[in-house]
Predict the 3D structure of the following.
Amino acid sequence: MRSKPYRVGMHDYTIDEAAERTGLTKHTLRYYEREGLLPPIGKASSGHRRYTDDDIGWVKFLQLLRATGMPIREAKEFVTLTWAGDHTIPQRVEVLTAYRSALVERMARDVEHLEALNRKVEWYEGVVAVRNATPEDVTGERASSR
């Protein structure tokens, strides 16, 4: 893919700024570009990459896809569908729906895990409280008042 021409006056970011805005490394941004996961990145007359707000949006969407557990190979397939045009929207909906369902299932399991951990922490905190208890804590009376 050829890089798109750099347009003067368009809001743009250096690769350092793009990395900062996305939380990715410059290496990862270059990798995404090399793998065809991003639209062609514009270049300034110096040859340096210039990322637009749209490019940053693509990167953030790829991060979302990756966070759902989507492998790079499938993300590339999804990007290819997107760039193929609107006639692929039903396929894209199918892909995203499948990942959404898997995410919902994973979240439900995580809630169960969190509840189990909370119960265990409460139990251990109770053990610690009993070990550290004084007679006053148990009887509610001061030792000197007996």
